[in-house]
Amino acid sequence: MRRKLISLFILFSFAVRAQKPDSLKQDHYFRLNYDNDFFSATDRYYTQGILAELILPGLKRNPISRTLFKLKNTSQNYYGLAFEQDCFTPVSIQHNTIYYGERPFAATMFLSNFLVSMSEEKKQRLTTSLDLGVMGPCAVCEEEQKGIHKALHNIQPLGWQFQIATDYIVNYRAKFEQGLYTTKYFEFVGSTEARVGTLYDDVSLGILLRAGFMNGYFKNFGLTKQSSGKKFQLYVYANANVRAVAYNATMQGGMFENNSIYTINSKNLQRDIFMGSVGVVGAFKRFSLEYTKVYISPEFHNGLDHGWGHVVITTCF
Fold first, then answer.
1. More exposed terminus of the chain, fewer Cβ within 10 Å: N or C?
2. Is residue 184 part of a domain?
């Protein structure tokens, strides 16, 4: 399984080639996202996530990019690659037996080929992505969590031997956003999103509010090398969405080889989920730092609501 994961990485890597001179006119970005419920003083459910994103114009020539969609008559299309690892645990990590009625241990790791297509004139943004990877022990969340706890002289997690079994991840995501009311210092955006595949199957509706001294949401990723962009930015935002869930492999097990020791029965899955967040972003020239507090309602019957901190570092080059 590790060899197959490496093969996927090599496939994506071939897309990073020398870029044509005209592609250098567009900005390049690197973003590092880190989630941890340590910021909420808990250690349960979605306990840690790492997402690294690289946006390069040359990735347009990646064959997988043909599976992605862009808006019509727009000149702002950002092609990117991302690596993501997400780790999940029950409400307690001090049970060395199966914790029945609770969320199972689960680990996912995948590579994403994504496209963000923007229209500043129509105030629209379309994001599509194809995720390929694995879930289970190969995603190494067990080793990672135990290593972090050991380094911090914290209690050692118990129960990872009962995590969701190894399986493949093939998932497609599409999100459309429309500016409903935008001014120089305030933006109100509506969105709809769908995820289909072996990891998540759901649809959601959401809203985004942004206020402060900032670049336009539909102009770029907030940072730019161009002289037209603001050198200093400081703004706050709030995001809220409702989600209808059909399938969640991190609780129900994979679709290809579903031989997990313990999973949550589909009857106990919470079908309607609310998720909200508030955050602040500070940026200077080509660098930005973001911090967000996230809240999510219970994802299964008799489960608890949850929250975590989300940190993003972005650079434009």
1. C
2. yes
